[in-house]
Amino acid sequence: MVRVFDQRHRRRYLMVVVIVAALVGLDSCIFAHETHAHCSARAVMENYAKLKPAAPRPVELATTSTPVWRTISLGTTPSTLALRNALDAANCGVGDLAEQILARPAFTIRRAPMEVDLVPLSGLELGFPAKPVPLTAIYERARKLGFELAPAEIGPQLRLQYADQPIGEFLHIAMEPIRTWNGEPVIFVVANGGAGLILIGQQVEAETEVPATSRFVFVHRRDIAEAGPSEAVPR
Question: Could you give the number of structural domains in the chain?
Answer without folding.
Answer: 1
